[in-house]
Design a protein that fits this description.
Distance between the termini: 73 Å
Largest sheet: 10 strands, mixed
Helix content: 40-55%
Order of helices and strands: HHHHHEEEEHHHEHHEEEHEEEEHHHHH
Shape: globular
Radius of gyration: 25 Å
Number of helices: 16
Oligomer: single chain
Number of strands: 12
Low-confidence stretches: none
Structural class: alpha+beta
Strand content: 15-25%
């Protein structure tokens, strides 16, 4: 793909030697392939290496500027989505930075950042790692991940021995997810990226550090908060979001039905209401589900002098969700959660290379959208007859990835396949022998039943 050639050429200066750069390019091609699992073994076999050594060296020991590569990915994704917006006449629509974290389940306790914690991917509390991401969302154009910071538990940061084993950088301090979001936003601002709004869920809405940073830098935001979040509306005592709804939003006329964006099944309509606070630059935005009546609360900030309306805040709030799709693409299509490495920098490098692959395909899909979106007009009523020709939905990241892999298949001869089968068998045999010896060193224990 032309985009991969362009971006890999741009990051060449981040690598001290050409060999790691070539390996990184092959790594990106491998995670973009149709491999069912992406780990050191499968990636090395797909590339054509004789062992995983080069891949492991790229992630763990090779000299290259991971942060510099991430900056190039960020600038490439933003510039590409902006060009696509201009091409399709949507340059005046919103640019939102969507904050969210995603996890990866891990076994054991040796991986940097690993802890029993809430893991959305596991549906509850599990052992794993979490990373804060920022997605650049261009309204009605596309989106891509442009920044990340891994969350590290306090006990790992505080213990020098643990920090050394996990490869934590010198000077890495304890940071909440909100503080990590501030770091990512600062990196983004340093690269000259302009965001109309920052959006995030309750983790970020309840971070004073994040809200203070955004307000000090003149950054508008729409952040989810809990029903117990307290606001000052006027001269009276502070009220929680739930109390404000009960006392001020009970009249039906205070609510307006607006769309939070378009989905596959049509507009995502909710009832919305907004309330001014004692501050001239802060509002409470409330969303109500039309069927269940479930409420969601957003604390909003728009700097003085900028226009603000209910429709604007609703649109910004609705653009938080594409980050979830970026995570879905990153994991299902490029192996974002398949980093079989343990050290901090190795995890970061895998994440950045996956973000690079995702950015290339996200920009390509956004650029192809005007030429490939031939869908029939939507129905105007429940009795509208179906069209004779439904047309085609625009090319997606997944569809482009399938086409690229079909056009550029990677095939190796039988000798390569036999070599890797033998390599795996020998590795497993060696590992099994060492496991058995370790077990023989353990004292034999026998639990006797307790007799009553």
């Amino acid at each position: 793909m032309a985009g991969l050639h362009e971006l890999m050429g741009a990051v060449r200066g981040c690598f001290a030697r050409i060999e790691p750069w070539v390996q990184a390019r092959q790594y990106v091609r491998a995670v973009s392939s149709d491999l069912p699992e992406r780990n050191g073994w499968t990636i090395a076999e797909w590339i054509g290496d004789r062992s995983p050594d080069k891949t492991q060296r790229l992630l763990n020991h090779a000299v290259w500027d991971t942060g510099g590569v991430m900056a190039h990915v960020r600038r490439y994704a933003v510039a590409g989505l902006e060009r696509a917006a201009e091409t399709c006449g949507r340059s005046g629509l919103l640019r939102v930075g969507a904050l969210d974290e995603t996890g990866q389940e891990k076994k054991g306790r040796a991986t940097a950042g690993v802890k029993r914690q809430h893991m959305g991917c596991a549906g509850g509390v599990d052992n794993g790692i979490n990373t804060v991401h920022l997605a650049y969302v261009r309204q009605q154009v596309g989106h891509a991940l442009i920044g990340c910071r891994q969350w590290i538990p306090a006990e790992q940061v505080a213990d020098p021995g643990t920090a050394a084993r996990m490869g934590l950088p010198d000077g890495l301090g304890l940071a909440t997810k909100g503080q990590l979001a501030v770091q990512v936003l600062q990196d983004t601002a340093d690269d000259g990226v302009v965001l109309d709004f920052v959006a995030g869920d309750e983790v970020y809405g309840h971070s004073p550090d994040l809200r203070t940073h955004c307000e000090a830098s003149g950054q508008a935001y729409v952040l989810r908060v809990r029903s117990t979040f307290t606001l000052q509306l006027g001269a009276g005592k502070p009220m929680t979001c739930k109390q404000i709804v009960r006392s001020m939003l009970w009249p039906k006329k205070r609510w307006q039905i607006c769309s939070a964006g378009s989905g596959d099944k049509g507009a995502r309509d909710y009832a919305w209401a907004w309330v001014a606070t004692a501050s001239a630059v802060h509002w409470l935005l409330v969303r109500k589900h039309l069927r269940t009546g479930e409420l969601a609360f957003h604390y909003c900030h728009v700097p003085a002098g900028r226009p603000v309306s209910l429709h604007l805040l609703v649109t910004a709030a609705g653009l938080r969700w594409p980050v979830e799709e970026s995570f879905e693409f990153g994991k299902d299509l490029f192996g974002l959660d398949q980093s079989q490495v343990r050290r901090y920098e190795a995890i970061r490098r895998h994440t950045v290379l996956v973000m690079l692959a995702l950015a290339v395909f996200a920009v390509a899909a956004a650029s192809a959208r005007p030429r490939t979106d031939t869908q029939a007009p939507p129905p105007t009523g429940p009795d509208t007859p179906p069209p004779a020709e439904p047309g085609h939905t625009p090319l997606t990241v997944a569809a482009l990835k399938n086409l690229v892999n079909a056009l550029h298949p990677r095939r190796h001869g039988i000798d390569h396949t036999i070599h890797w089968q033998n390599w795996r068998d020998r590795h497993r045999a060696r590992a099994r022998w060492h496991h058995q010896r370790t077990r023989l060193r353990r004292p034999l224990e026998h639990a006797y039943p307790q007799l009553t």
